[in-house]
Amino acid sequence: MGDIYQIRVVGFKGETKTIDVATAEDEFNKTTVSAFKEKLIVKFPELKGAQFRMMFTEIQLEDSDTFSMRKIQNKSTIFLIIRMPGGGGGERIPPGEDWSRIHNLD
């Protein structure tokens, strides 16, 4: 029996789980982030249908990335980060303006 190539994943709540990815180095290196996400759902069922990002070092992983592209190796750690709705489009307060005056909080 050959080696099992694995990735450690840190979930939203800080829990760490190990995911079996491949039984051969070449297969591991060619694994796409999209294919890896499918394996994640088995260990993290709460991810099904969820909007989340995966980070390796300081890099956000994209679905089309392969492990070799991002230099992800056996036993590397990937972090899951939930996507939050919102961002942008809100009222901007000009520099020097008093926020409480604009929103009548006095």
TrEMBL record:
Organism whose genome encodes this protein: Silurus meridionalis (Southern catfish)
One Pfam match: ubiquitin
Alphabetized InterPro entries for the sequence: Ubiquitin-like_dom, Ubiquitin-like_domsf
Composition skew (Basic and acidic residues), residue ranges: 94-106
Protein name per UniProt: Ubiquitin-like domain-containing protein
Region (Disordered), start-end ranges: 87-106
Highest taxon, organism lineage: Eukaryota
Domain Ubiquitin-like, chain residue ranges per copy: 30-87
